[in-house]
Amino acid sequence: MTEYKGIRWAYDRYEVIADSIVNGIGVVFALIGATVLIFYATVWSSYGAIAAAWIYGVGLVLTLGMSFTYNLWPVSRTKWFLRRFDHSFIYVLIAATYTPFLERGAEDPLLFAMLIAVWVFAAFGIVLKCLFPGRYDRLAILLYLAMGWSGVIVAKPVSMHIPSASMLLIVIGGVIYSLGVIFHVWEKLRFQNAIWHGFVIAAAAVHYSAVLTCFSLSPEGF
């Protein structure tokens, strides 16, 4: 077990390799998926939707890329520095995932306010992680979950602007993320980090499908 500034990294060589493979797969598919989504949006969608596709695609790639970099990096002062960004980008991914769906109904004051709110919340989380690294980690997990599930507040109006398939995929992805948290906090379990990131990538893939469906189908489902 290696410790730096009170943070413990209790992963052996095989756990690090497994985690690197999982994260590496996620980054590759994120790059491919983001490219496809942005191309599709550029050809078929409005300027607002194109911007939303870019925000989501870049947020997805940067978040998984930072996770790969941070978790592969050896324990050092640099790893401690990268930890701030790794945790901060979770807020970015949550807000970026909201963006394509809320953009579809941005003319609705409630949905527009929600779009602004999730990014303000993300900015607050980033500041919290950057200014107080290594502190309030348990609180941060609750904030991630609260931010992720706050979408239920606007579920009804959002459902009027996106396909029902996207709504279902959003919920499924949220459940997968939430179940993954069990392994994230189960620090004594071997390969815990790789399993957690497996849940993250699976959930991200489901949400990507929801976004792509949102761009591909009308709210009526065709």
UniProtKB/TrEMBL annotation:
The keyword NAD does not apply. Its main location: membrane. It comes from the Bacteria. It is a multi-pass membrane protein. The chain crosses the membrane at residues 21-41, 47-73, 85-103, 109-132, 139-159, 165-186, 198-218. PANTHER family: ADIPOR/PROGESTIN RECEPTOR-RELATED (PTHR20855), LD03007P (PTHR20855:SF3). This is Hemolysin III. Pfam families: HlyIII. Zn(2+) binds at residue 197. One of its GO terms (cellular component) is membrane. It is found in: Membrane. One of its GO terms (molecular function) is metal ion binding. Keywords: Membrane, Metal-binding, Transmembrane, Transmembrane helix, Zinc. InterPro entries: AdipoR/HlyIII-related (IPR004254).
